[in-house]
Amino acid sequence: MGKALDGVRILDFTHVQSGPTCTQLLAWLGADVIKVERAGEGDITRGQLRDIPDVDSLYFTMLNHNKRSITVDAKNPKGKAVLEALVKKCDVLVENFAPGALDRMGFTWERIQELNPKMIVASVKGFGPGPYEDCKVYENVAQCAGGAASTTGFDDGPPLVTGAQIGDSGTGLHLALGIVAALYQRKSTGRGQKVLAAMQDGVLNLCRVKLRDQQRLARTGVMHEYPQYPNGKFGDAVPRAGNASGGGQPGWILKCKGWETDPNAYIYFITQAPVWKDICTVIGREEWLTDPRYATPKARLPHLMEIFGEIEAWTKTKNKFDAMDILNEHDIPCGPILSMKEIAEEPSLRKTGTIVEVDHPTRGKYLSVGNPIKMSDSATEVTRSPLLGEHTDEVLAELGYGKDEVAALRAEKVI
Ligand code: COA
């Protein structure tokens, strides 16, 4: 079966995490992704956080599946000629260099347009135009500048970053959508365009509900579903909400059996209003159904912490999976806190291809996260990440370079 992006060629100038997430996704959707790296070192992540000496790290392998790798010195005129040939041949150039680096290489938007007016140039940057546009940015900087850190954590603690890579991988996903949309628009305009996804913007987009809350707070001075209500104080900015749900249905993380020794023996529990009767029945507090302090969602809001305490007295008697089974029989929304170990070992995730085992020539077998997007007519087969420069000869041959020319470029350390 074909793939959604069959025939689309991507010149992949990305490195580290944000850009590679984007191009990996495009590769999974069927695009031919040619990753350009510097000879000798390649993407810095090949050597970062290594668990096996001299072998591409999991950081690299897990972000660069289904791609081809070529090594080219972009600052050498002969290397530049190779890249210009690729610009003419490809549909999209994706990059996440520090601001200005692509221009300094000689690939300004104007030059790329001259070479290929249909080229889509897609960039991840830390910030959009404004005071910080020239700054280099990594994941946690974006989480802080995009509003995630100030709204994550507990009221009595410092701002917190989250383990979900919303700045890097999140922005890569945004960029991929922009690229696919630009390819679609090109069908009618015949022209390429610039696509920019700034990490601050991507994080803020994912923190949309917190900007919602900022405006609610400014208008009313209080937010009833936040743990600060009714006994704590609200300031003039959205506070950290601990494990509150962030939506209209109150939720919290509760201890389960074994929590004293297992750091993940917890369950997320949502006191969804339509199943309140079931919640009271399951935990044995039927009297709440008629008690006016608990009978309606509004009446419950000032007692939420007390209610969760009572529910926790029940969840502490069950392990998280048993609790999940019982609660799901009643359609009570809840979710076990799964460790990465549990996720890695979960058979259903292996079955759907969300967790895949990949074989690598120097690393051997390892686990990766497969394509989270499942399409009925564009199935994803995850193939291993390329070795540094593994496809240089192949790609140069496709560009019309003869064997002797390739050998000469190699001797001159251009490739
Ligand atoms: N041949 C020759 N030179 C190459 C090359 C190649 N194939 N590939 C990269 N380079 C050069 C670049 O031209 C640049 O040179 P210059 O500074 O002289 O212009 C240099 O390598 C380094 O690029 P840079 O992007 O500045 O890397 P860095 O390691 O210093 O910074 C980041 C890393 C991530 C901070 C920075 O790239 C950045 O802010 N990117 C945008 C935001 C982003 O994506 N952040 C998240 C990363 S997960």
Polypeptide structure, described:
This protein is elongated. The chain has helices spanning 18-28, 58-61, 77-89, 101-104, 109-115, 139-145, 168-189, 199-206, 208-220, 276-283, 297-300, 304-315, 320-329, 340-344, 347-352, 392-398, 403-411, and strands spanning 9-13, 32-37, 67-71, 92-95, 120-125, 194-198, 251-255, 266-270, 334-336, 355-360, 364-369. It is of the alpha/beta class. The protein is 36% helix and 13% strand. The two termini are 35 Å apart. α7 packs across α8 (199-206). It is built from 17 helices and eleven strands. Bound molecules: coenzyme A.
Beta percentage is: 5-15%
Number of strands: 11
In N-to-C order, the SSE pattern is EHEHEHEHHEHHEHHEEHHHHEHHEEHH
Mean pLDDT: 97
- Provide the list of bound ligands, each named once: coenzyme A
Largest sheet: 6 strands, parallel
Helical percentage = 25-40%
- Spans with pLDDT under 50 lasting ≥5 residues? none
CA radius of gyration? 26 Å
The DSSP helix count reads: 17
**N- to C-terminal distance:** 35 Å
The backbone outline, from C-alpha atoms, is elongated
Major β-sheet strand ordering: 3-2-1-4-5-6
Structural class: alpha/beta
List the helices and strands and how they pair.
Elements: E1 9-13, H1 18-28, E2 32-37, H2 58-61, E3 67-71, H3 77-89, E4 92-95, H4 101-104, H5 109-115, E5 120-125, H6 139-145, H7 168-189, E6 194-198, H8 199-206, H9 208-220, E7 251-255, E8 266-270, H10 276-283, H11 297-300, H12 304-315, H13 320-329, E9 334-336, H14 340-344, H15 347-352, E10 355-360, E11 364-369, H16 392-398, H17 403-411
Parallel strand pairs: 1-2, 1-4, 2-3, 4-5, 5-6
Antiparallel strand pairs: 7-8, 8-9, 10-11
Bound molecules: coenzyme A (COA).
